[in-house]
Amino acid sequence: MTTDKIKIRTRKIRRYILGTICLSSVAFIFQACYGIDNSRDEDVCIKGTVISTANRPISGIKVSVRSNFSNYVYTDREGNFTMYTNFLHEYNLKFEDSDSSRRGGILYEPKDTIVKNDSLLTQLNITLNIHEQDTLSN
User: Fold this and answer.
1) Along the 138 residues of the chain, how does pLDDT read in single tens digits?
2) Which of these, 38, 89, 107, 136, is most buried using a 10 Å CB contact count?
3) Phi, psi values for residue 5, rounded to 5°
4) How far lies 38's CA from each of 43, 53, 83, 86, in Å?
5) pTM above 0.70?
6) Which 3 state secondary structure label does DSSP give 4?
């Protein structure tokens, strides 16, 4: 191949790559701006606080809706959480410890809670017990 043919071929490859990147960028921006219309279903706000049996807030607890495990949040330093999910008349929430290393190795037992819902805002106060194996070692 001659030098001119190599330059032309290199230019075509660059145009192809640049065109692909531009098209992907446009598609991404369109999806980010307009996305999928989720407004058909009403969202429900579930708020709450997770505390220990000693009445202290617990951070790092994973709160999830059992019907949709991809919808989860973690409690903050004060044990508070806020999550949004589709409106249902009953939710099965799972509270599980995911960050015991930050609390000196204290592990809390997981807890399932069924919540009956009749409004767009639900407020919960959840108490978790320390895992028995940790109480025996202390």
Assistant:
1) 688 888 888 999 999 998 889 888 888 887 777 766 555 556 788 899 999 888 999 988 999 988 776 788 999 999 999 988 888 888 889 998 876 656 666 788 889 988 887 777 778 888 888 876 644 444
2) 107
3) -65, -40
4) 9, 39, 16, 10
5) no
6) helix
- Amino acid occupying residue 11: R
**What is the H or E stretch that residue 27 is in?**
helix 3-34
Return the SS3 of 129: coil
Per-residue tokens: 95? 């509270």
Q: What is the length of the chain?
A: 138
Q: Pick from 120, 119, 135: which is nearest to 52 by CA? A: 135
Sheet holding 61-65, edge to edge: 68-74, 61-65, 90-97, 111-116
The C-alpha torsion from 106 through 112 and 117 to 121, rounded to 10°, is 20
Q: Specify whether the CB–CB gap between 94 and 110 falls below 8 A.
A: yes
